[in-house]
Amino acid sequence: MTIRTRRLRRLVGARTGRGAQPKVVALGGGMGLSASLAALRRITGALTAVVTVADDGGSSGRLRQELGVLPPGDLRKALAALCGDDDWGRTWSRVIQHRFAGGGELHDHAVGNLLIVALWEQLGDHVKALDLVGRLLGAHGRVLPMSAVPLELQALVRGHDPRRPEEVTTVRGQATVALTPGEVQSVHLVPHDPPAVPEAVEAVLDADWVVLGPGSWFSSVIPHLLVPELLQALTETKARRVLSLNLAPQPGETDGFSPQRHLEVLARHAPKLAFDVVLADRAAVPDRGRLREAAQRLGGTVELAPVAAQADGAQGGSPRHDPELLAAAYDRIFRMHGRIGPWR
């Protein structure tokens, strides 16, 4: 545990009283949700992740197709992000993320995916199985699927076929949507009104803070707003709501999007949903005035903070969040924007 993390936890303990912590629900999927969870677990132990279940690529897609199960990959990533910083946590995080090599049927399957699916088959209960995996890993929080049925993501995309740049077509599958060369207009789920996991709804209604994002905007963030019971809970909860923006547009899915455009497309999918705070990296917002205007239309204010990790020329790749900087930003938001619930 770093000095900065210890300081954050001391601050939380000092202001909330002994044993009292904010109850936080984080929604998303993939690496964006993992980044948010890695930050939030540094400032609260009362943490629940609600994870999208529309993935149809890679190991998750193969297991989904062969066994008819929920795609476990994003759930596994969330559990790995909640593992502790001690030897036990670091070891289990590596184990469940490990992928088999070779040319056989196990090639590229993640150990954690197989473990999760095995427990689903043994216990016959998605939530109990994930809770058991969490206890095994010593996870600092709970992981829940947003729905108990596998979902298909479909998108209306303009110019998916580069030869017909003005044509709008339906693109099917999360993996395809995430990499489309066209411009995503909107997304929807099949089935159109999937049931939410009751524990996920209860967690949102009982939360002090709800955090949506960062992550792939159309394939990991917005899908939560397309589950009717979950959207109703997000709209009715007394928790304060934070929308956490990405560090950069995602090639394909949101290529060329400004920060404020992310807010605009989200509002089109859930026009009645308001947010108290929009969090963005200071260096990723070229027009702060327009972002503030977009946030005001959602009912919120903008918080700008340095949350990006320093670029590593050797690693390259996309920008990524620094978990301790992101934790400090969340902690400041929780302190400055009011407290709801028993920890106030």
Give the SSE map.
Blueprint lengths: L2 H14 L7 E5 L1 H11 L6 E5 L6 H10 L5 H9 L5 H11 L13 H13 L2 H12 L4 E4 L6 E7 L9 E5 L1 H5 L4 E8 L7 H9 L2 E4 L4 H5 L6 H9 L3 E5 L14 H11 L7 E5 L6 H10 L3 E5 L17 H14 L8
Parallel strand pairs: 1-2, 1-7, 2-3, 7-8, 8-9, 9-10
Antiparallel strand pairs: 4-5, 4-6
Explained architecture:
It is a single chain. By secondary structure, this protein is α/β, with parallel strands linked by helices. It has 14 helices and ten strands. The strands form two sheets. A seven-stranded parallel beta sheet has the order 3-2-1-7-8-9-10, sandwiched between helices. Strands 5-4-6 form a three-stranded antiparallel beta sheet. The two termini are 26 Å apart.
Considering the chains and any ligands shown, give keywords for the structure:
single chain, 344 residues, alpha/beta, seven-stranded parallel sheet, three-stranded antiparallel sheet, 14 helices, 10 strands, 42% helix, 15% strand, disordered C terminus
